[in-house]
C-alpha cells in the first residue's frame, strides 16, 4: 500500500542520535505469551496508565477496588494504586483519594510520581505524589484548568503536559505545556500551541527523544503550521520541526472526526509508531484502524509512513515499541488485514485484542497470547522484566488477570 523507505541508512544513524528520554525498556526478544501469576487484579472499571518508580508499579485508571493475585480481600483504591513489581503485593501506604479518572502517569524525582487526569484534588488534573505514602509534594504546584490531562512525558528537569486544558497555574496554555518537575512552574520559553480540531485542540499522546517531542491528537496545526493530528517538535529550538505528513488529514467515519490515539517512540529514538481508530476502508490509503511507523528525523512536507498495518475495522488504542517488537492493543480481531471490512480479508491473521508487529517489515509476528477484547488495551509499559498491559477486561493469555497483566521477558 505504501512504498517502504530504505531502512539501512536509518539504522546507520542509530549510534549518532539521541536516546529517547521517555521510551520504554529495550528488549532483545519478544516477551513470553504466558503472563506472570503475581500481578494484582483491578476489580472494576479500566486501567489507563502505568509508571514504574524504583521497583514499584503505579497504576492509574477509573476503578474503585483491587485484589492481590493470591488474596481474597477487596482493597479500596480510588483510581490509583501501587504494587511491587516482583511480588505483586499491593502497597498499603499508597492510597490517594482521587475523585476522578487517572489517564496519565510519569515517574518523578525522589521517589515520586506525576499523576494526570480529570480529578479535582488535591490539585485539579495534575499532581505530584510521594510513592512511599501517597502524599502530595507540597513544593509542586501546577493545577490544570479547562480540561483534563491525557499525556505526561518527563525529560530530566522538565515535564511535558498534554491534554484539553487552557491554563496551568497562572499561565495560559492550550493543550500543551512544559513545566518544571520540582515547582510546577510553566516554562515561558516553550509556547508551541495546537490549533483547530473538532471541539477544540487536544493532545492524546506524546513521546520524546532528547531532542524531539512527538505529539498526536485532535488538532489541525501547531503554531500556525499545518500538522493534521500529528506533529514533531524540535526541542533544541522549542519550535515545530520540519516534519509534516498529510496521511491523517483524510477523514475516517463521521463519528471519528479525529482518530489518532496511542503513540510510542523506539528505544533508539529513530522511529515512532502511531495507532488509530476510525473504521474500515478496505483497499484505500486511509490510515483508519491502523498502526503506522514513521521515521523521527525525516524532513519535509511529504513524510510518509515506512509501513502500515491495518486491522480491517477494529480500533487500536495503545502501542509499545521495544526494539524487537511493536506491541499493539485495542479491541482488534486481526492484523495484516488491509482488505478486511469487519471481516478477515485475504492474508489476515487472528490477533484478538493484542498483537506484536515486526518493527522492520510491519507484518504481524507469531506472538499471539490473545485477550478478552472489551473496550481494549489502554496502557502498555515495557520494563526490564516484561510488558505490562492495562485494559478493561479479565482474561489475558487464556488466564484470569483482571485489567492488569504482565508478559515476562524470555
> Structural class of the secondary structure composition?
mainly beta
- Total beta-strand segments: 36
Taken from the alpha-carbon principal axes, the silhouette is: globular
Number of contiguous helices: 1
Q: Sheet with the most strands?
A: 4 strands, antiparallel
Q: State the separation between the terminal residues, measured CA to CA.
A: 34 Å
> Strand sequence of the main sheet, in spatial order?
17-18-21-22
Mean pLDDT: 94
How much helicity do the residues have?
Answer: under 10%
Strand content: 35-45%
Low-confidence stretches: 1-22
Radius of gyration using CA atoms only: 20 Å
Describe this structure in words.
InterPro entries: Delta_60_rpt, Quinoprotein_ADH-like_sf. With 410 residues, the chain is mainly β. 1% of the residues lie in helices and 38% in strands. It is built from one helix and 36 strands. The strands form twelve sheets. A four-stranded antiparallel sheet has the order 17-18-21-22, with no helix packed on it. A hairpin with a 7-residue loop joins strand 4 and strand 5. 55% of the residues are buried.
Amino acid at each position: 500500500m505504501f512504498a517502504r523507505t530504505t531502512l539501512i541508512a536509518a539504522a546507520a544513524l542509530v549510534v549518532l542520535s539521541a536516546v529517547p528520554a521517555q521510551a520504554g525498556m529495550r528488549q532483545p526478544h519478544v516477551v513470553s505469551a504466558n503472563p506472570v501469576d503475581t500481578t494484582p487484579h483491578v476489580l472494576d472499571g479500566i486501567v489507563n496508565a502505568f509508571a514504574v518508580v524504583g521497583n514499584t508499579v503505579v497504576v492509574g485508571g477509573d476503578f474503585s477496588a483491587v485484589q492481590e493475585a493470591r488474596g481474597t480481600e477487596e482493597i479500596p483504591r480510588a483510581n490509583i494504586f501501587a504494587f511491587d513489581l516482583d511480588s505483586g503485593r499491593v502497597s498499603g501506604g499508597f492510597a490517594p483519594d482521587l475523585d476522578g479518572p487517572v489517564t496519565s502517569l510519569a515517574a518523578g524525582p525522589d521517589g515520586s510520581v506525576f499523576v494526570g487526569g480529570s480529578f479535582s484534588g488535591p490539585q485539579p488534573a495534575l499532581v505530584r505524589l510521594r510513592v512511599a505514602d501517597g502524599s502530595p509534594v507540597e513544593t509542586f504546584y501546577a493545577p490544570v484548568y479547562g480540561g483534563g490531562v491525557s499525556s505526561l512525558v518527563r525529560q530530566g528537569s522538565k515535564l511535558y503536559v498534554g491534554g484539553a486544558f487552557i491554563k496551568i497555574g497562572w499561565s495560559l496554555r492550550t493543550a500543551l505545556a512544559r513545566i518544571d518537575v520540582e515547582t510546577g512552574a510553566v516554562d515561558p520559553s516553550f509556547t508551541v500551541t495546537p490549533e483547530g480540531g473538532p471541539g477544540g485542540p487536544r493532545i492524546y499522546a506524546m513521546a520524546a527523544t532528547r531532542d524531539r517531542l512527538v505529539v498526536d491528537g485532535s488538532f489541525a496545526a501547531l503554531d500556525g503550521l499545518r500538522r493534521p493530528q500529528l506533529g514533531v517538535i524540535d526541542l533544541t529550538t522549542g519550535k515545530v520541526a520540519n516534519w509534516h505528513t498529510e496521511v491523517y488529514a483524510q477523514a475516517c467515519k463521521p463519528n471519528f472526526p479525529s482518530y489518532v490515539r496511542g503513540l510510542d517512540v523506539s528505544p533508539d529514538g529513530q522511529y515512532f509508531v502511531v495507532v488509530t481508530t476510525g473504521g474500515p476502508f478496505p483497499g484505500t490509503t486511509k490510515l483508519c484502524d491502523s498502526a503506522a511507523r514513521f521515521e523521527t528525523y525525516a524532513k519535509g512536507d511529504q513524510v510518509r509512513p515506512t509501513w502500515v498495518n491495518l486491522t480491517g475495522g477494529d480500533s487500536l488504542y495503545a502501542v509499545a515499541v521495544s526494539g524487537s517488537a511493536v506491541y499493539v492493543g485495542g479491541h482488534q480481531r486481526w492484523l495484516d488485514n488491509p482488505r478486511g471490512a469487519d471481516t478477515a480479508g485475504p492474508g489476515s491473521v487472528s490477533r484478538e485484542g493484542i498483537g506484536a508487529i515486526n518493527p522492520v517489515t510491519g507484518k504481524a509476528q507469531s506472538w499471539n497470547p490473545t485477550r478478552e477484547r472489551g473496550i481494549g488495551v489502554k496502557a502498555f509499559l515495557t520494563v526490564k522484566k516484561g510488558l505490562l498491559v492495562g485494559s478493561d477486561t479479565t482474561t489475558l493469555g487464556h488466564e484470569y488477570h483482571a485489567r492488569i497483566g504482565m508478559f515476562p521477558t524470555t
